[in-house]
Write a structure and sequence with these properties.
The structure is a homododecamer. By secondary structure, chain A is of the alpha+beta class. Chain A has one domain: 2-Layer Sandwich (Dodecin subunit-like). Chain A has 1 helix and 3 strands, in the order βαββ. The first copy, chain A, is elongated and about 50 Å long.
């Protein structure tokens, strides 16, 4: 495991439900084209406001995935 | 849209339920006196502890609202 | 109250459910051995990915507790 | 001069021309309602993209103004 | 207490005496127009120099106050 | 709009003219291969010096673009 | 001296008098149970407000102490 | 040289030998698919522990490479 | 693995040889009293100078270890 | 080139025209006494306000210059 | 005043009395060789511990002084 | 020792061998003209890439030296 190389990509996911779901949506979208994803970490949490409430959440994450040998 | 000016205010909302709800509460309170709110971003997430659990969540956010012409 | 001293410890809690629950789990674990916990603040939110979704959430928090006189 | 108190406000100005002009626009807008402004500092520079170029610049600044006695 | 909302303002206070007194002066000035102030935290400590010594101290703080229901 | 996912890329653009033009050049270059670019934010501004002046400006930006469904 | 190992602990001390005294109080409290303390550095300075003035100062410090061989 | 555009990628390399070798391994892996790499800078140095020692080093770097015209 | 809790401690290790060895020394010292150490990350790298060279390296790391159930 | 040593100095330049010109002015002033300047990076952008506009721009930069052998 | 250039130097001053006095001592020492000093800002506050109290305070500041024309 | 004043300088050293050697080279170069150097701390680690490997390491450090009385 010590000789693996990982690449990081930065994505912003959105959700009308919750900040956690915005993260899930970003990962689900990435999974369509990226393999071997291992972890994520949150870079920024924000969102848009409408009618005195959160219209949708936007969470920016970094995802690390293993580069295949 | 390019000639709009936005002002930012910083608020801390509280909730006994969840960190997301603390954000919703801060925005709902701000909506009583601020118009044209567009977005928020999370500055700090913290809370108070009682009996080995989170008593209430406290999330500090910045809110951006458009200054009317 | 002005002459109290507080100590901070840093913990990472995990949960398969949500980022908020990872915080609750870290506090519950700490409560087994630490008394007089007052507050926490979030240092880092991350997690592990499996099958295109979050396998478990990992949230690092600082907890402040009062040193007894 | 040593007994003055200053308040800071945070604004985002926009311009289709340049990043400097976005700052000028934020200050001009603030000048409609704020007196005794002394200085600003840049917090964040960003913008929106359209047709492969900058559609408008958005610069967030803090402005310090003297609270009148 | 869990349903309170707090607003933050940022001020710079000055003093010829000490850095602590610059904080006290900023709070005293704010108290003329702001109610329900609860806490402050130091953002920046600086000052002006004259004749090889500190002419006056300038400390920038954030003050949190409870928004009344 | 709430279910969009955005990806961020980081680029450094160069210009002998100005810091703003270095940003324009980075975006123009990116537009050759990236679609649906929405925004940028400045990460770092630097440059090279020759003959006591700026030889060319180098501005590093992050660009966010929408991942197509 | 090159083969020593130091451990860091983070404490918040309080004082009604001054920010410096809050640091002294944190160190005095730590000295009741920790030996071989060498240095501290300030992490955060804050305080509570009452009647338009500082009720008590709270300074968070890290303390480094040598782990005995 | 002033009209070049550079793209940055972020990678984590691993090594059982040293932190420097973890950087070399990340660059060697990137070289299999990326051309015109010019520089790197270290973002984060960490590692895994086993049997009271470093099992392997993990260094996260950003690499800048020139986008071909 | 998702229900584990980790605690972080911060240590400064020293070495006359290299920055990597300073990390190894801190971990070896910690291993005398801490079990289940999993990872470390570098917080700060510094050192003392004598006779125009590095007399000894000092690296501050955080170590994460699993709290036993 | 690999055995060069560079020293950094930090300067604040001013201009009534633009933020870019403030950087040019700082470099031109430094060039009167410093040789072998290679690069600069922007540390802080601020300015003074008068009559609802920017009176002059102040940009703080670091300049790197090669120490001659 | 808009065409002045300022240089910054970084110093650490010490005092057995207080953190403010450590700043005063650094400025007094600098005044022996530097002219036209205008302002300072605090970068870091730390100190050495002996016998369960602060032996001496060490404050690192940046000083800005005008480069003479 | 409590009344000493220290000045900090920032240097970038280079080496084809290792990141540690780049630090040693910067200190050795500084030692040609600076006396009473006490400590350094690493500000930034980077390097240049050629042929899929590190061509040379560049480490930026701050050096603290005592100003003689």
């Amino acid at each position: 495991m010590s000789d693996h190389t990982y690449k990081h990509i930065e994505l912003t996911g959105s959700s009308t439900e919750s900040s956690d779901q915005a993260i899930q949506n970003a990962i689900a979208k990435a999974a369509e084209s990226v393999k071997n994803m291992h972890w994520f970490n949150v870079v920024d949490t924000r969102g848009y406001i409408e009618d005195g409430g959160v219209k949708y959440w936007q969470v920016t994450i970094k995802i690390g995935f293993r580069i295949e040998d």
